[in-house]
Amino acid sequence: MAKKLVIHHDRIGEAEGKALIDLCPFGAIGEENGRLVVGAGCRMCGICARKGPAGCIELVEEADTVSIDKSQWKGITVYADCSDGRLHPVSLELLGKALELAQCPRQPVYALLIGSQVEEAAETLLRYGADKVYLYDAPALEHFVPEPYTDVLCDFVEKVHPSAILVGATSAGRSVAPRAAARLGTGLTADCTALEMRENTDLVQIRPAFGGNIMAQIITPNHRPQFCTVRYKIFSAPEPQAHPAGELVRMAIPPLDGRTEVLAVEKKPTEMDISEAEVIVAVGRGVKREGDLALIRQLADRLGAQFASTRPLVECGWFDPKRQIGLSGRTVKPKLILTVGISGSVQFCAGMKSSDLIVAINEDPRAPIFQVAHIGLVGDLYEIVPKLLERIGEVQA
Questions:
Q1: pLDDT digit string (tens) for 350-386?
Q2: Which residues, including other chains, have CB under 8 Å from residue 27's CB and lie 6 or more apart?
Q3: End-to-end CA distance of the chain
Q4: What is the largest CA-CA distance in the chain?
Q5: What would the pLDDT profile of 3-39 be if each residue is shown by its tens digit?
Q6: What is the 3-state secondary structure (H, E, C) of the chain?
Q7: Which of 362, 393, 396 is nearest to 377 (CA)?
Q8: CA 360 to CA 372: how far, in whole Å?
Q9: Residues 207, 192: Cα–Cα separation, whole Å
Q10: Whole-model pTM?
């Protein structure tokens, strides 16, 4: 139900107006050109209607209007992020989630692939369960440029009418998804950590809000398609099929925005990405001094692990931001993650809770990290880490 305030100006005199202005706890009520107005600071708390001068302001609830026929929008689409002919792994993870969502209610699963000479990638998408792969293949689409890729995505929506579009939160995905959503006049939820599907095909897009203190459930009930972006390593890719039954659909290329021309492409050197690590040792504010990191780095080296941290240590300048785990850093899914001196904020846990094995060291037995850890070691890290190093040395010897 939508709410709105109705102001009955004919019932408001000078005294009533002053009383209403003084009553609003948010300072949202004011006077403009001799008339009472409600500004953007209004929280729809209704106190002005309940406790203000009788009959001056009324809080009215209106039924939400459905602006589209949902039966005309079918299918869950995965935007396949493809660069240099290689699919980003997040595209396969989203296919796995799309296959799960499509069970209730039963819907087809599509993949949208844009590029040049990317048929091999299209065959991969079919092997991973897509019912149809819609292929836009042209030399003009060889390199990712936001505007023409947005043209293609909008053309696909206009022709196919998918109910939902899942986009990986890569550089390309984060660039094209909001452009397309704005052009199509629909909603977009960024960096979702969970997805659910209702019987009426409304996609429940779940993500942390208010600093991670709550998990918001967001829906787009009156518009289609529904857009969301999801980070790498949140979901799991499905098993490939030996004999895929899906169909490759070649699409005509629409008129493209040609204002941007790619003159050359210079590849950056390959950098470390903790998202790909199979073993990680992560440290937090339990480490007292930067010099003490050397002790824990020894542990990471013994385990053949990547060294990572929480946000506070990045802000202290102890770590490169690329080694930060959490909602504002990287999402990881290693076979083993060992956290040292990390309390376990919602933001941090959201970035690593899907790890196969989580071992936590913290001296506070009530630390939130122990709620997600598989193995918890309660004690002083300055005592536990040397003992671990000693024991690992004995085993390796």
A1: 899 989 999 999 999 999 999 999 999 999 999 999 9
A2: 41
A3: 67
A4: 89
A5: 788 999 999 999 999 999 999 998 899 998 888 999 8
A6: CEEEEEECHHHCCHHHHHHHHHHCCCCCEEEECCEEEECCCCCCCCHHHHHCCCCCEEEEEECCCCCCCHHHCCCEEEEECEECCEECHHHHHHHHHHHHHCECCECCEEEEEEECCCHHHHHHHHHCCCCEEEEEECHHHCCCCHHHHHHHHHHHHHHHCCCEEEEECCHHHHHHHHHHHHHHCCCEEEEECEEEECCCCCEEEEEEECCCCEEEEECCCCCCCEEEEECCCCCCCCCCCCCCCCEEEECCCCCCCCCCCCCCCCCCCCCCCHHHCCEEEEECCCCCCHHHHHHHHHHHHHHCCEEEECHHHHHCCCCCHHHEECCCCECCCCCEEEEECCCCCHHHHHCCCCCCCEEEEECCCCCHHHHCCCEEEECCHHHHHHHHHHHHHHHHC
A7: 362
A8: 9
A9: 5
A10: 0.77
Residue 62 identity (one-letter amino acid) = E
Pair of tokens at residue 41: 């600071």
Record the tokens describing residue 284, joined without a space.
Answer: 């937090």
